[in-house]
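Example with several molecule types.
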Amino acid sequence: MGKITAAITGIQGYLPEHILSNDDLSKIVIRTMSGLLLELELRREES
Amino acid sequence: MKDGASSDMCIEAVNGLLKKTGNDPEDIDLVIVATVTPDHPFPSTSNIVCAATGMKNAWGYDLIAACSGFIYALSTGAQFIETGKYKKVIVIGVDKMSSIIDYKDRTTCVIFGDGAGAALLEPNEEGMGVQDFILRADGKGKEFLLQPAGGSVHPASIETVEKGMHYVHQEGKQVFKFAVTNMADVSAEIMEKNNLGSDDVDWLVPHQANLRIIDATANRMGLPKEKVMINIQKYGNTTAGTLPLCLWDYEKQLKKGDNLILSAFGGGFTWGAVYLKWAYNS
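Resulting structure tokens for the full complex:
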């Protein structure tokens, strides 16, 4: 009997249906940037 | 992924794998889940997957090696087959990176994705399957890529949440520097160790973190782009999921006897390569 090796005999993937698009991300980032700018503005006013 | 956990992706992948390969869930001996986003610190995601899919004769465990998780798990799982202990082992790479990503951090939120891939390992007497592996780790790299809180160093608290310590922290330049060198080096090393020239390698299956790292690895191995599996443009970096998802995507192009080099680098640092002969035609 030859040497036993471990072979991949099947492969299967799964991906979530929901896809976060570049457009979705850019909205989040823009919103975040707006929030940061607002926060900086508020801090400046406080000081 | 809006709803659900890592185990839910594993369950979908495993159910599909069992159906596709015509296996009964009760025939599976062992399930290894490579992940940095388990459902819980305990019980293991493997336990949850076994129960949900009817693999009632299997035991299993989770394995943490970040982006190198699948090659660590594959190499480990292969030992149970090679020793003759088990006949059917399922190795899963899964991550729900969206659960630990700060979507205010532009340097990480555009990179990572969610996904799972499951591979069935069985004994082979024709010389197919895992031929060799080289696995490496260097804990000095821990500060450059990690999830700082949620473990025993910084248990969850109001402070850790407020400081965003449950999100991925990555120092991209440092990680890139280590990754580009070590992934290329270990891939070249496993070729040399097994007397493989660039003509002998049919496919490079690289971790999908960064196209420049993938290109550098392929160049070092002397491989043209046609021999490199790439799907980062579709799914992003799914951490432990990238390699099995590549194999799944390219499965129809793979032929029995093809020489594959799987290569990865990840948090820890961890890295390594597996030399594998593909065992079947689709």
